[in-house]
Write a structure and sequence with these properties.
single chain; alpha/beta; 27 strands; GGa_phosphorylase; glycosyltransferase
């Protein structure tokens, strides 16, 4: 007979090992049974063996659209129905996944102050509307697990000191030493609230409407495992762990990236490995490079991490006309471990984060980027440093408008420059993701900022769907950009060399006006040299800077033009995918 323990014993032991490291003073075996009951209620089926790390959970055919549930409105139809129409009409064969930002009832921060984790916001639609989208596209949802709305049922029960919610929120004293706490905002960390037991001070990493939960209480963890199960049962296959870096707090510490936070992500990865559904974990950690990469763990934490340095680096390259910083950073980036991948993006619902630029873009170059984007109508949000001073946290601007002009001023290359930025994201190792307002070349929404009193509203426009459809059928930037990006994505998804884990190398091209990477398919049959002119100059490179294998025909996949021997020329902001195979 085999000495292999039965599934339940083996899985329980793995879960208990995680819990011992998270809650060393509690009975890990009892907690493990609670975890299994929360994630697999009523004997929900699970795998007999854990998934092994590999490259089969994604391919070059994968690309994501990022959108709010109400980015498209018309005052008549449910916004989720309009989104479904846009996806089926405009995105089929272009992207195969969609990240719908928090679609639950909320009170602020456009969904990230959740008041009810179990319902779909009735202003958007209902679970059947989510199910329809999940039936046609791989659906990514947000697990907003660091905090909840101050006006939701959980926090109202806390203020009434009702069990179990009276122990759900992190409290601290104004007398505590909180000087080392890493903050993404300038608002006070602690907020005094009235409860039936008198005043309490609760921890608010982000805003006073977003009250931080206390994961030192395992019942909080169990609630979120039940919420993940709800998502999976409704067709979600990618779980985004929002603001996960701040999850575990300790007075007297920075309260970011603490060991218990990483162990909770590892526990979720173990559950994903045994889930019958193909569940992918994505960590959202808008922090410098080394801290961000730490969420891969030893191939036992996130499947996917956001490539957060990419947006400011690409922006700086295109505004300055030099990819020097981008090239240096990319050469120092490790390949994602087996079973892991990067999520490459340039724009999201938030601003263009400047923290990831630390150590990659010198302060004077960051300042020049901010100055140029301000000329294009952009805004800047600040964060508080431990010494009480402030530093730029993010640039608030649509990515399309951020590239309106360069450091040298306006020119005639706005759309070409923007298309170059998005093509870079398509070319790199990883899975590309595109914010809906990038695909639609959305201008800055200054009226939204004035109306809502929030910088981030500049990049969260809500298109009237009828107006958008009219723009997509006439000669507008919206039509030009969407058609160009769709064409490039259709080409990309056919190239094995663009598999998220295909080999990548950053060659030294001898001219920093060009950013280039070499991609080779996992079976080594296809190579693509992806070249991107980040300047307004016409640039000519000697062909011998590329390793073009002799006796093979090399073609630019984007123009279908054969590549002649001798020299390779790129027009201002032109991108070329030079390949020995593919379509």
């Amino acid at each position: 007979m085999s000495d292999e323990p039965p599934l339940s014993a083996s899985l329980s032991r793995m879960i208990a090992d995680h819990l011992t490291r998270i809650y060393p003073d509690l009975d890990a075996d009892i907690l493990a049974s609670h975890v299994i009951d929360a994630f697999w209620p009523d004997d929900t089926s699970r795998r007999r063996r854990a998934r092994r790390p590999g490259n089969s959970m994604w391919s070059q055919r994968d690309a994501l659209l990022i959108t709010y549930g109400n980015s498209l409105i018309d005052g008549v139809h449910k916004p989720l129905d309009l989104l479904n129409d846009f996806l089926r009409r405009d995105m089929r064969g272009v992207v195969n996944g969609v990240h719908i930002l928090p679609f639950f009832p909320y009170t602020s921060d456009d969904g990230f102050a959740v008041s009810d984790f179990e319902r779909v916001d009735p202003q958007l639609g209902d679970w059947p509307d989510i199910n329809r989208i999940a039936g046609a596209f791989q659906l990514m949802s947000d697990l907003v697990l660091n905090h909840v709305s101050s006006q939701g049922a959980w926090f109202n029960a806390y203020r009434q000191r009702q069990d179990p919610f009276d122990q759900f929120f992190f409290e601290a004293s104004p007398d505590d030493d909180l000087s080392d706490v890493v903050r993404p905002r300038t608002t006070p960390l602690l907020q005094e609230v009235d409860t039936s037991d008198g005043p309490r001070h609760v921890w608010c990493t982000f805003s006073h409407d977003q009250i931080d939960l206390d994961f030192r209480n395992p019942r909080v963890l169990m609630e979120f495992l039940r919420i993940i199960r709800l998502h999976l049962d409704n067709g979600v296959r990618i779980i985004r762990l929002d603001a996960v870096a701040f999850l575990w707090k300790e007075v007297g510490s920075p309260s970011i990236h603490l060991p218990q936070t990483h162990e909770i992500v590892k526990l979720m990865r173990t559950l994903a490995n045994f889930a019958t559904e193909p569940m992918i974990l994505v960590t959202e950690t808008n922090v410098p490079k080394a801290e961000n990469l730490s969420y891969f763990g030893a191939r036992d934490e996130a499947h996917v991490i956001y490539n957060f340095p990419l947006p400011p680096l690409v922006l700086q390259a295109l505004l300055s006309g030099s990819a020097a910083h981008l090239n240096k950073w990319q050469r120092g980036m490790p390949p994602a471990p087996l079973g892991c991948a990067y999520l490459n993006f340039t724009a999201s619902h938030d601003g263009i984060g400047m923290r990831p630029a630390e150590g990659t873009i010198p302060a004077e170059d960051q300042a020049r980027v901010i100055e140029t984007v301000k000329r294009s109508g952009g805004l800047v949000s600040m964060r508080t440093l431990p010494d009480g001073s402030e530093a730029p946290y993010e640039i608030n601007c649509t990515y399309f408008e951020a590239l309106k002009e360069t450091h040298d001023g306006p020119d005639d290359h706005h759309i070409a420059r923007f298309l170059c930025s998005q093509t870079i994201a398509m070319s790199l190792e990883g899975i590309p993701a595109f914010y809906i307002h990038s695909l639609l070349a959305t201008p800055n929404d200054h009226e939204g900022v004035a109306r809502r009193g929030m910088n981030r509203a500049i990049n969260r426009h809500r298109w009237n769907y009828d107006d958008l459809r009219a723009r997509l059928e006439s000669d507008t930037p919206q039509r030009t950009v969407l058609n160009a990006l769709r064409n490039r994505l259709r080409v990309r998804r056919k190239q094995a060399a663009f598999h998220p884990n295909a080999t990548q190398f950053t060659p030294k091209l001898g001219d920093d006006r060009v950013f280039g990477v070499w991609r080779q398919s996992i079976d080594r049959q296809q190579s693509v040299f992806a070249l991107h002119n980040v300047s307004s100059d016409s640039v000519t490179l000697p062909a011998d800077v590329l390793n073009l294998i002799e006796d093979e025909t090399w073609v630019d996949l984007l123009s279908n033009e054969p590549v002649a021997e001798g020299e390779i020329t790129l027009a201002p902001y032109q991108c070329r995918w030079i390949s020995n195979g593919g379509h």
